[in-house]
Amino acid sequence: MSSNDKETGILLISHGSRLPYGSEVINTLADMYRDISDYKVAVGYMEIHKPDIATAVEELVKDTNIQKIIAIPVFLAHGVHTKRDIPKILGLVNAEEDHDYNHSNHDHSSHDYKDHKDNHEHKGHHHDHDFKKVEFDGEIIFTDPLGADPLVLEIIKKRINDSL
């Protein structure tokens, strides 16, 4: 293990789900990466599961010399969590830089937001959480989600071929 390996930690970030399958997958991926790497690896969740992202970072750096964290959102594409929530939690954007990303299943332009908010509820969950913020003095590198990567395409092709 090089000194660089000891100074860098890996944080896999998952959304969290009421069902156990997502946490089983992300924890298996973390274990698989640990098997091929000397980096210390932690998993943090946006919501529902523990540990949350900030707690995962605390556990990752506790009693170590970690100066850099590479945070990977294990999401397929960018969304409100990867563009707003996670950067805020990681301390990568401050209040002045925060962008108000609205997300919904319908058009809000026909009425004002306050009326919209007061007159009905979305099913599911809102993203106006008060997330615990990361306290870390080192460097945090926040990567893109998985995206339209050729390796993801290989998985899709395999699923198709296995089904034929």
From TrEMBL:
Residues 100-128 are annotated as: Disordered. Co(2+) binds at H15, H81. Ni(2+) binds at H15, H81. Its EC number is 4.99.1.3, 4.99.1.11. The active site is at H15 (proton acceptor). CDD domains: CbiX_SirB_N. GO terms for biological process: anaerobic cobalamin biosynthetic process; methanogenesis. Pathway: Cofactor biosynthesis; adenosylcobalamin biosynthesis; cob(II)yrinate a,c-diamide from sirohydrochlorin (anaerobic route): step 1/10. Belongs to the CbiX family. CbiXS subfamily. Catalyzes the insertion of Co(2+) into sirohydrochlorin as part of the anaerobic pathway to cobalamin biosynthesis. Involved in the biosynthesis of the unique nickel-containing tetrapyrrole coenzyme F430, the prosthetic group of methyl-coenzyme M reductase (MCR), which plays a key role in methanogenesis and anaerobic methane oxidation. Catalyzes the insertion of Ni(2+) into sirohydrochlorin to yield Ni-sirohydrochlorin. This is Sirohydrochlorin cobaltochelatase. It comes from Methanobrevibacter filiformis. The gene is cbiX.
